Amino acid sequence: MMSPALVFNCHYNGLSIIQELGRHGVSVYALDSSRSVGTASRYARYWPCPNPLYDENGFIQFLIEKGGEFDQKPVLFPTNDHWATAIARHKPELEQWYIPCVADGPVVDLLINKDRFYEWAIERGYPVPRSYSADDILEGNENIFPLIAKPVARRSANICANHQDLHKFLDAHRMTVINNISEYRDFASQYAKYLDYFLFQEYVPGMADRMHTVGIYANRQHEVLGLFTGRKVRGFPPDIGDCIVGQGEKMPDEIIACVKEMVHDLGYSGIAEFEFKKDPVSGEFRLIEINPRSWSWIGITPACGVSLPWIAYADLTGVDSVEYTESTVENGEVVYLKLLDDLRNCLHSYRKIGYPEYHMGLWAWLKEMSGKKRVYAEFSWDDPIIGLRALLGLGQTGLKVLTKKPPHTYSQQTRDPTGSESIHSGSGGHGR
What we know:
Elements: E1 5-8, H1 12-23, E2 28-32, E3 44-48, H2 52-67, E4 75-78, H3 81-89, H4 91-94, E5 99-100, H5 105-112, H6 114-123, E6 131-132, H7 134-139, E7 147-151, H8 157-160, H9 166-172, E8 176-178, H10 181-190, E9 198-202, E10 211-218, E11 224-236, E12 242-248, H11 253-266, E13 270-278, E14 285-291, H12 308-317, E15 325-326, E16 334-337, H13 339-352, H14 362-369, E17 373-376, H15 384-403, E18 411-415, E19 421-425
Parallel strand pairs: 1-2, 1-4, 2-3, 4-5, 11-15, 16-17
Antiparallel strand pairs: 6-9, 7-8, 7-9, 10-11, 10-13, 11-12, 12-16, 13-14, 18-19
């Protein structure tokens, strides 16, 4: 009998894992605090549960109470930062009932808290952008600009449990380009009470399509058993947005060697995404962050011959032998896309939010996708309810999309967690 799997949260990230494990005959439970898309999959049974961002203790207690219902220990697959943090923090306790696919608590905590991670990486000579303190900026010279301001941790139960709108504020301000000392003083003045939540870092120029992913699964001995490499083709918004289209793409051998070295150096186990950005001037790859869990377009990996969800499950349960596997597809041979979102963005939304260079007509869009193996986020022949749900959602929101205020502008009014209005001027950054 195969061990069950519990996947949470269950947006398209979690859906990809649910479908891949389900196709291998695994009984999957979709855990989430709302009916996100993965909870509708034919491959999963939905269990509503507390959101650890606001109620970590309630979430852990929920898992403990459910733990005794299984004949074999289920594998836990967190797919977002605060879910991974909660599992990692309580990992020793949960291992009585479960097999967590997550690194140990101190490792996850280091990666989630970006200021500590960058300090750790710089000390060891890894290729991360340089960070600056307020004193560095005020006492430095103009040569350090442009900088970016970004949250130390956008979704942390430590800060959001008592400030339930704070993560929305940090999401809205996740990347702000600061071009000179005057702009820094304006930012520091406007967000004075939130400055402790931000770090300031060297800006690596370029849009989101310069973001490269190395996705891995590492075993308990911190050996990489599966490795995928790819590049984000389009995000929304196109400068800092989440991946809408991504493709398999090769990475230099030295970057792959760097990733494997970091896995050992960190003592990492589980699934992770290493995000690099390629500098358009120097051609260097700079490590922007490590996400200690699966990422939004992990659904591409099975089509690239390196199914990270199955490799992780097989290794953790022993149900199948696992040998090192690396994706070998040619650049652009396999494409992952959120079809409905990408079509809407290319035909309409990119131009509406001020990026006409990303606009294309239907024929150009169809031509771009021809001759490639495509993995659709919403549509699969064996899980049709997801596609129907996506189409229904598109119909329900069609009029709103045509009339709503653009979500990403260079002078955007946002509401901070205390309820006061503020102006978010300037945007940009590394992308995700």
